[in-house]
Design brief:
By secondary structure, the protein is of the alpha/beta class. Helices cover about 25% and strands about 25% of the residues. It folds into 2 domains: about 90 residues, no CATH class; about 45 residues, no CATH class.
């Protein structure tokens, strides 16, 4: 797993720990979070070893926001930190990412795994948007 600071401001006593979705890096999220708190993003879940989170110890308040695949990753990796979170929000994710009833159906996942390409990944990214201008801006 990788991690990076999206924003930091001297004197902030709040931090948002953001667990991004599958195949998402920090770039689409730069500048999206409020400046009244620092923001650390975790992404690239090919390995589930947490990045160094020791800087979080300095914050009075830590809010967890987990999106999509980040919901499952947070559940797998952050249980030991759960008492440090002032709030924890799961957005559009599941604790069962590959599951015929509660996640991506197994056959659909296996098909995607076999056919994943740059074109398919771009189709996945594009499917997140209703608005063509938003899709174009994201893909730039």
């Amino acid at each position: 797993m990788k991690g990076s600071w999206l924003n930091t401001k001297k004197g902030n006593n709040r931090c948002l720990l953001f667990m991004a979705g599958w195949a998402m890096g920090p770039e689409p999220f730069e500048g999206l979070f409020p400046e009244d708190r620092d923001c650390f993003i975790c992404y690239d879940y090919r390995r589930l070893d947490l990045p160094d989170l020791s800087r979080l110890d300095a914050y009075e308040r830590i809010d967890l926001l987990a999106w999509s695949m980040g919901v499952w990753v947070a559940a797998q990796t952050l249980a030991g930190l759960s008492t440090r979170f002032t709030s924890a929000t799961a957005l559009a994710g599941t604790l069962y990412p590959i599951d015929n009833r509660r996640g991506i159906p197994v056959p659909a996942f296996e098909e995607m795994e076999q056919s994943l390409s740059v074109e398919e990944l771009n189709n996945f990214y594009g499917s997140m948007f209703d608005d063509a201008d938003d899709r174009t801006a994201f893909m730039a």
